[in-house]
Write a structure and sequence with these properties.
Layout: H1 3-10, H2 14-26, E1 30-32, E2 40-42, H3 45-68, E3 79-82, H4 85-97, E4 102-108, H5 109-124, E5 128-134, E6 143-146, H6 148-157, E7 162-168, E8 172-178, E9 184-189, H7 192-215, H8 217-226, H9 228-234
Parallel strand pairs: 4-5, 5-6
Antiparallel strand pairs: 1-2, 3-9, 4-7, 7-8, 8-9
Length: about 250
């Protein structure tokens, strides 16, 4: 086609068509004749795709080489924010895959669906993996703790929000709060203090469940209903609500 015909067929205004054809020619997508009138034809798509792929891979290799020369260490103790589910899952998997000795995790079924393979691989390579599971998911290899009932009460107490966490080697921590509107607030850090707090939180939930199992659910529910301190701690969290002080001996 000549330029006028290309303009008509493509819907590109005549004032823009020759500029557009020139750019496409420079990229190898269009060929043109040297005759009069000048005519244009599309390059074979297989040849074009091959050239684009090679150019893209060359650019990636150049970027990878340049990035590898940059400093990658993070200042110790800083806390980094994560704001998407994809970035949280990626941080979970990276933390698991880079663990060298032990992993403590508290996860719900929605997150386990994505990170279960990484946890099972970690267990197979000799990492001690302890996972508190708020749901029905099972894992092959890691030591798992059934916290289904704790999860149900937590959802009520936190108005549907879910808290998940992974700690590797008592140093690398990822904590995420998933909201009912599918948004997420999360952080990742190598602060030893945050790692200690998170591991103790996970152990506390597991030990609490084991104690409830020993005393029986009915006994626990009775204590919960009759103890002001228990009600203060375990009643649903409401924004703006003034929490009464637990009773203490004078």
């Amino acid at each position: 086609m000549n330029g006028h015909e290309v303009s008509k067929a493509s819907g590109i205004p005549p004032s823009k068509i020759y500029e557009t054809l020139q750019r496409l020619e420079a990229k190898g997508a269009v060929l043109k004749t040297r005759s009069e009138p000048v005519q244009y034809t599309a390059s074979p798509h297989t040849k074009l795709m091959s050239a684009l792929r090679q150019r893209f891979e060359t650019d990636l290799a150049t970027a990878e080489t340049g990035l590898s020369e940059l400093p990658t260490s993070r200042p110790n103790g800083l806390i980094w924010s994560l704001r998407t589910t994809e970035s949280v899952i990626s941080a979970f998997c990276d933390t698991i895959d880079n663990a060298t000795s032990e992993i403590h995790a508290a996860l719900w079924d929605a997150e386990l669906e994505h990170v279960a393979p990484s946890l099972e691989r970690a267990s197979r390579r000799g990492i001690q993996v302890h996972v508190a599971i708020y749901g029905k998911h099972t894992l092959d290899g890691p030591v798992c703790y059934d916290l289904t009932l704790c999860g149900e009460s937590a959802l009520k107490r936190l108005n549907g929000r879910r808290l998940s966490a992974i700690v590797a080697d008592q140093t690398k921590t990822v904590i995420a709060e998933f909201h009912t509107d599918n948004s997420v607030e999360a952080l990742t850090t190598d602060s030893p203090l945050m790692s200690l707090l998170t591991v103790e939180y996970i152990k506390g939930d597991v030990l609490g469940r084991l104690l409830i199992n020993q005393m029986g659910q009915d006994h626990f529910e009775h204590i919960r209903q009759t103890s002001p301190s228990m009600r203060t701690l375990l009643d649903p969290v409401t924004k703006g609500k003034t929490t009464p002080k637990a009773q203490t001996k004078q």
